[in-house]
Design brief:
Elements lengths: L7 E7 L2 E6 L2 E9 L2 E6 L21 E4 L5 E3 L5 H10 L8 H4 L2 H4 L29 H19 L7 H7 L11 H13 L9 H17 L6 H10 L23 H14 L8 H16 L5 H11 L8 H13 L30 H13 L7 H11 L21 H14 L14
Parallel strand pairs: 1-5
Antiparallel strand pairs: 1-2, 2-3, 3-4, 5-6
Helix pairs in contact: 4-6, 4-15, 5-7, 5-15, 7-8, 7-9, 9-10, 9-11, 11-12, 11-13, 13-14, 13-15
Length: 443
């Protein structure tokens, strides 16, 4: 892991939002405003910029110091997010969600370690981890359980790359007992239960929680749980007039990067929701606006076109058959001779250091994600492209059970590895008797 030599940040508040200053780079600030994390260069500061996810906070100097007050925040304190909000509130009423939002990666930098109960916490994600001698869904299950449970217990929040996608994937591992699935799902059910008093941290939490619970319902009981329905119903009052939601935009593609992802993610969840939820009166108007938004706004990347293809397999009115086939052809054309796909070929996201991502090499996230999408879109299990993709995945599992994927943003935590592992088990589990990955009755 390559870490920036930054140890301390300063924060203050103003009309633009909560402002963090890198103490060793006093000309560079970060503002969090309306769900966005963006570097802002002071005219007196040095050239260049750095993304928040690039920061590495050493254990010996894990503090935030607020200005103008003298309050100090110890990031090793388990109550750090709450303390940060309290310290910020003393300065201003703006952006009280900042630390638990875009700085969650810093506050939780220690990983899941001791709070994983009886589950052994995996080592940090690293490209140096050796490959497994043979593929093991049992090892993958151990990794997913420990990572999702550790994230949930320690951070007490949801993440698209870790415990939300865990709820998508874990049911595919039929016959492999899970010591974590009930607790992880229970955490989100508890959040929904208490949203009236413990307000959602942001609109994204409502949408992402509703989607994950609904998809999990479809893959487990086949019945829409009352709390899943409640969460879905609570999405619609938060929907904007243009059919989108105010999604987190922290510069962490492909998930926490743009509003389009939130819209197509919601479409997947609504389409997957059991018991005909998409046809209910509470959902009809919102789904109509969602469809209009997706028709009026082209996908900003091929990754998101693939998400739309997945959503269209569950919810009518998103793509014509011709549009769906064109997307399938685009995706198939990008498969590499070894059977893998590259995330960098699905979007032109720049790394936080300004460099481009390397599209020459296949990676586990793109390969597993597209295997799931193409299967959901109707490709047969014995499709040659899918067979090659599964072969690629079998040859690239790491010894811990994970499928490592380099972050398209920064070389620090590589949390996209968690999502890659989730999609990989969805792609591979079918061979061991599970239902087709990502499949669901169309609504």
């Amino acid at each position: 892991m390559h870490c920036n030599p930054v140890r301390l940040l300063r924060f203050s508040a103003g009309p633009a939002g909560l402002k963090y200053r890198l103490i060793r780079n006093p000309g560079l600030y970060f503002y969090k405003h309306r769900g966005r994390c963006a570097p802002q260069q002071n005219s007196a500061g040095p050239a260049g910029s750095i993304g928040i996810a690039d920061l590495c906070v050493a254990p010996s100097r894990r503090t935030l110091r607020s200005t103008p007050s003298s309050a100090r925040l110890d990031l090793d304190d388990p109550d750090a997010p709450g303390l940060a909000r309290k310290a910020q509130k003393s300065n201003s009423g703006f952006c009280s969600k900042f630390v638990v939002g875009c700085l969650a990666v810093i506050v939780g930098a220690r990983g899941a370690s001791a709070e994983g109960g009886d589950l052994k916490a995996p080592a940090p994600n690293s490209p140096e981890e050796p490959m497994a001698q043979q593929v093991s869904l049992e090892k993958a299950a151990e990794f997913l359980d420990a990572t999702a449970l550790g994230w949930t217990r320690q951070r007490k929040c949801g993440s698209c790359h870790t415990n939300y996608v865990y709820l998508f994937a874990r049911p595919a591992l039929k016959g492999i007992a899970s010591p974590a699935a009930t607790e992880v799902r229970g955490f989100f059910e508890d959040r929904v239960t208490h949203w009236e008093t413990a307000k959602p941290r942001w609109d994204t939490e409502v949408v992402a929680t509703a989607v994950a619970l609904a998809v999990n319902d479809a893959a487990t009981t086949g019945k829409l749980h009352p709390l899943s329905r409640k969460a879905l119903d609570l999405m619609w009052p938060l929907q904007k007039e243009d059919g989108s939601w105010d999604w987190l935009k922290c510069g962490w593609p492909p998930m926490e990067h743009d509003d389009y992802f939130g819209v197509v993610y919601a479409a997947i969840g609504v389409g997957a929701a059991p018991d005909g939820y998409a046809a209910t009166e509470s959902a009809k108007a919102g789904i109509a606006k969602l469809r209009e938004h997706l028709r009026a706004h082209p996908a900003p990347s091929l990754h998101h076109k693939a998400m739309l293809l997945w959503a269209s397999s569950k919810l009518d009115g998103l793509l014509t058959p011709e549009e769906a086939q064109k997307t399938v052809e685009q995706l198939r054309a990008l498969q590499k001779p070894d059977g893998g796909w590259s995330l960098a070929s699905l979007g032109d996201w720049k790394r936080h250091d300004g460099n481009a991502n390397d599209a020459a090499q296949a990676d586990a996230y793109a390969t597993s994600f597209l295997a799931v999408v193409l299967r959901a879109a109707g490709a047969p299990a014995d499709d040659p492209a899918l067979r090659k993709a599964r072969d690629w995945l079998r040859g690239h599992q790491r010894a811990s059970g994970r499928w490592f994927t380099r972050s398209p943003s920064a070389d620090n935590y590589h949390f996209l590895t968690h999502a890659a592992t989730a999609y990989a088990v969805m792609a591979l589990a079918e061979e061991s008797g599970a239902a087709p990955a990502g499949s669901a009755e169309r609504r």
